[in-house]
Hints:
heteropentamer, C: about 350 residues, alpha+beta, Rossmann fold, CATH 2.40.50.100, 6-stranded mixed sheet, 5-stranded antiparallel sheet, about 20% helix, E: alpha/beta, 10 helices, about 40% helix, binds molybdate ion, binds magnesium ion, membrane (chains C, D), ATP-binding (chains C, D), ABC-type transporter activity (chains C, D), nucleotide-binding (chains C, D), cell membrane (chains C, D)
Amino acid sequence: MLDWLGPEEWAAVALSLRVAFWAVAASLPLGIFTAYALARWSFPGKQLLNGIVHLPLILPPVVTGYMLLLTFGVKGPVGGLLNEIGIVFAFRWTGAALAAGVMAFPLMVRAIRLSIEAVDVKLEQAGATLGASPLWVFLTVTLPMTLPGIVAGAILAFAKAMGEFGATITFVSNIPGQTRTIPSAIYAFLQVPGGESSALKLVLVSVTVAMAALLISEILARRVADRVGGK
Amino acid sequence: MLDWLGPEEWAAVALSLRVAFWAVAASLPLGIFTAYALARWSFPGKQLLNGIVHLPLILPPVVTGYMLLLTFGVKGPVGGLLNEIGIVFAFRWTGAALAAGVMAFPLMVRAIRLSIEAVDVKLEQAGATLGASPLWVFLTVTLPMTLPGIVAGAILAFAKAMGEFGATITFVSNIPGQTRTIPSAIYAFLQVPGGESSALKLVLVSVTVAMAALLISEILARRVADRVGGK
Amino acid sequence: MLSVDLHHAFSGFTLDAQFEAPPGLTVLFGASGSGKTTVINAVAGLLMPDRGRIAVGDWMLLDTGRGVRLKPHRRRLGYIFQEARLFPHLSVKQNLKYGAWFAPKDAPREDMGRVVELLGIGPLLERRPGALSGGEKQRVAIGRALLSAPRLILADEPLSALDETRKAEILPYFERLRDEVDLPILYVSHSASEVARLATTVVVMEDGKVVRQGAAAEILGDPDVLPMGAREAGAVLTVTVKTHHADGLTELDAGGEPLFLPQIAQGPGHRVRVRIAAHDVILSRSRPEGLSALNILSGVVHQVHRGEGAVIVAIDTGAGRVLARITLRSAQALELATGVAVHAIVKTVSVASSDIGAVGG
Amino acid sequence: MLSVDLHHAFSGFTLDAQFEAPPGLTVLFGASGSGKTTVINAVAGLLMPDRGRIAVGDWMLLDTGRGVRLKPHRRRLGYIFQEARLFPHLSVKQNLKYGAWFAPKDAPREDMGRVVELLGIGPLLERRPGALSGGEKQRVAIGRALLSAPRLILADEPLSALDETRKAEILPYFERLRDEVDLPILYVSHSASEVARLATTVVVMEDGKVVRQGAAAEILGDPDVLPMGAREAGAVLTVTVKTHHADGLTELDAGGEPLFLPQIAQGPGHRVRVRIAAHDVILSRSRPEGLSALNILSGVVHQVHRGEGAVIVAIDTGAGRVLARITLRSAQALELATGVAVHAIVKTVSVASSDIGAVGG
Amino acid sequence: DEITVFAAASMTNALAEIEENFEAETGHSLAISLAGSSALARQIQQGAPADIFISANPGWMDTLEQEGLLEPGTRFDLLNNSIVLIAAGDADPVEITPDLDLAALLGEGRLAMALVDAVPAGIYGKASLETLGLWDDVEAQVAQADNVRAALALVATGEAPYGIVYATDAAAEEGVTVVGTFLADSHPPIVYPAADLANRDVPAEAEFLDYLKGDEARAAFERQGFVVVAN
Ligand SMILES: Nc1ncnc2c1ncn2[C@@H]1O[C@H](COP(=O)(O)OP(=O)(O)OP(=O)(O)O)[C@@H](O)[C@H]1O
Ligand SMILES: Nc1ncnc2c1ncn2[C@@H]1O[C@H](COP(=O)(O)OP(=O)(O)OP(=O)(O)O)[C@@H](O)[C@H]1O
Ligand code: MOO
Ligand SMILES: [Mg+2]
Ligand SMILES: [Mg+2]
């Protein structure tokens, strides 16, 4: 069974999982924060922030990847600074995670934002009258009630991160074991005549993994919804 | 001003707008239906449907494009049938819209589904006791209360459709005036030396259009939310 | 005629209720958590019970044995929920009109203007529910249910959020529905005076079970039952309007005995119901003179029922059986026992206006 | 001492309310839509009024003039909302504990077990709010507010969803809060007996304005005001417990006159409040004999106030001023006028248990 | 007549010039679809309405020829190209021989190439390095981009110190220096074949193919740095 895929493909699968996991895990707090800010606050530049969040969706992935390269590459303004404190994205799996995270960010934020907007402000008020500061109200009322949306957003982001290709390969290229994710590998197979069957295997793996993640998320979300709805 | 972009670029902008508009408009009813089914019904194969909806997100766009080509191309099983009744997707702007619609579908469905799940079942029950059949309850209670989510889903899908590249170019190629959308034009510019500035112009147009759409959607959603919340 | 037979188990609570409600208004009475809302939800079709049968006349709403489970929207109900459940995206007016939309074109309808005026919600028509006070929401919810041309009204504590004045305005409307429109009504209430005034039948629930059911007069007048605590015991008498006097009093004929009430709406010859709360009756062995109380009913003690800290005395008078709640000390001082002749003194005005109702079905 | 001065305009409704609530429990009284919830929301900080000042003693919650706008969570409130507003994702127990979490560690606390028992919610602790009945939700909401160690309690019709028995159980608890714990309480109610029993002060609202405020006895006993309709008028007397008799009666001393009530909880020497509703008093020129009524207060007519269809007579007795609502016919028959000596007959048991309260602040 | 040309995206600039001249001269109109050679070839397999195919990848042209999709006898090699070693910024030329210590040049840095098993430029580069016996030394350090331009960008931004790209691309990029050219015999010949496609018969097809072979086209290609195959 294991030799159904070659070691390089297995490496690509493992890497994709790692990249997608960290892309989601690392961006989730910022995603929740951004979603909350967009849902509940009004501040100057809110529409600008909203626009920036959506940019990766609007731009062709290559452009996003190129912008990441210019910004977070070792020669880039941010990448250079981070480099000095030992954080390197260029040509590392971390960079792949960054690219995937950026591309998935708008999906995550939208889902979470919709859920936050659906939380009844009256319950948050009840929390406040009981002495909970806005932060505590958020943590004890808004956040738990938003869980289904957060799960949905995270899984959407995870799926996107598993499938992200254009920005990733442009930013961190395709280095076996480092940045060669499943989509990069599939892309490479599809470039040459007769590569379809190898590509298909990876497609199947990718689909299986993502379906499993989806199923788990559905079960999680159902459980949360049950808790909120009834017993 | 008009000659800031050449006629071919203007054609690409116009085409992208048309493609994104129809991608969203045509898939919206199905998106709402699917979201409702996933949110409120339980039926065998529900998880499978959920998985299929998410597929375009998980797979590299090239794969989706290739699958569309195999299915909806003139030689494909579905494309061949449709061809006989005069509906052609292959290498037409309609195909670009199909590709964009398919790629944007999971985003649309997720957003709408979250909104539907947030509608209090108790209000739907109230509608039923007042004599509204499930369809009427849906039309008069669920749907209007879901409007912010539908707007959000549509705009997310629109943004995605404006930015979609990989599946589109793989499915319907990059034919000027027919299937050359903004992202495809940007791609072609980026493949040759000196194309960056032309690409940048198109990026700006694309960003402007999408931001405008976003802003309108925010205003719309706010208005709807105000109606539901207060006066 | 509504017949209900339900079995349903929640974790921690089991409903096991059977009752038959004759035409008219049936009050579900019982402590918080006794299962009233659960019954109403089952009748509405919002709760599918584990087993059960619900029929209005020979129209079968539910029969799990035979697989009949009418969908809620086919049951043609006017359900006034315990929490208003207004549609937040519709204006008050649109909320009110909602049900009429789906009613058969030829169904008898209430007049919108009339209902709006009765409920005092005219100035609110263009607002959305989010901008209403608690009582206003409840009034709109009542209107919405009434205007849906229903064949059965379910009302779950419809008046509990309202002040006395408003209650007094809306109560006669439910009476009219009960009597003139002839709608079966299932009504949850905690208020004995509401029950006395409205109920044709009372169904008393306790912990998911029906512990007692019967005509309102019977249940409220039975010193052995007192489902609502001794304070709420009282007799419900059916009397006939005799004359309206110039000084604002209405004279009634209670089985030959005169009874005076502050002016009531019904004209001479009409039969009305009055409630005489047990704690509003004073007893005397000799006929008292020179009292401000105008109503003195003579009778014979039927039964002396010792409760906690007080005694309930049932007296058979010409007007019917009247209950009096007095102290043990007074009962002993007056040497009350079955067969003893006594006079029941009822303060005119203690027969409160909200305890008078047109006689129903 | 709570002082409130608020101006706020909604489209279609303007609030313009000033009142000073001395320590104790202040009832906001008024028709549906008169602005009660709006006032409470402003005190809670959930509504930021256009202009206003709210202070508890010298602790300033709001002063728009000086830019003071304390956030709700800094106000340390126990707010019992008109609709329960429980947290659906937390169990009943977690809901109850929520406020305690955020209270200062040294704040005086109610005992959870006691509150749970009082409210009868012990069996519900592990459930989620979605599986509770309407009244159960309201009881949990009361518990949640009480257990948050508040410095001010806001209660918006906290008992309206409850049955009489349950109400009677919870009322004494609010009394204790008022008297022993010495919490300022702002309380919305539609029920005159709740008001009479609980209120130190009554604030009457009408259409966004405070039309009358004062001590409970004063407002409820003033025949000129009768904010709640004539039926609700009544005297509130402060009396002292004398002895508990073996036959279940408690003898009270009302300014020298004896008054008999069914056994009450307070021991001899305690001062309690009783309410004598005007419609529960019968008048007589001669001292009546042989009645089941044990309480006869002698006095002199202070004023005869003609209302619609009835007359309210204020009588100065040794126990204080008592009101009687009688018919015009009786008033004429008895030739009542200021200065005339009369006897007020009060049925013992018509001084209901829910009208007795320990004397507050 | 309208002629649809499917051409590798790396010819964008040259074809833009040729299109203008050809249309002016002949009155025919051209629709040029620019995409990756593999995508175009697959579309042709699926019945794309293309008349002419110009591929950057002889392998895909072979595939089409075997499937009988080319008009027999019309295929010819249009262009030649060469691959070069480039360095970021200014750098001294090196001699590309088996003695070159490429690994030492790179140090910790990356060697940017197009996908070495999938994209022609990468395939050629890998072949050369293998011929020279350098491949094993540097394999682990190769960063593979999804196309030549992306590889070029990695070097131009300084993220990778060296890269292997087409001479045509290197010439036009200011940020890089060509430090050496790979000998033509170190890799399979780099040719861009063109052919008439069998599916449709537009008389002007032959006219356009002839034009491509003509002097005007030659000049246009040479301006973009291509070497036109002598014929
Ligand atoms: N957001 C709003 N916009 C406009 N009007 C409002 C808004 N909120 C409340 N009102 C109006 O203000 C008035 C007072 O409302 P409030 O909720 O204070 O009444 P209330 O005295 O608590 O009544 P109830 O006893 O029915 O609960 C009502 O007429 C209501 O319609
Ligand atoms: N989904 C549920 N799961 C478990 N128990 C439930 C559920 N819904 C209701 N119950 C329980 O069933 C009992 C009856 O509830 P119901 O709402 O019928 O009471 P009620 O008589 O209407 O009370 P109230 O007067 O307080 O509204 C309650 O004890 C309640 O806790
Ligand atoms: O146009 Mo290519 O096939 O990506 O070099
Ligand atoms: Mg209930
Ligand atoms: Mg209110």
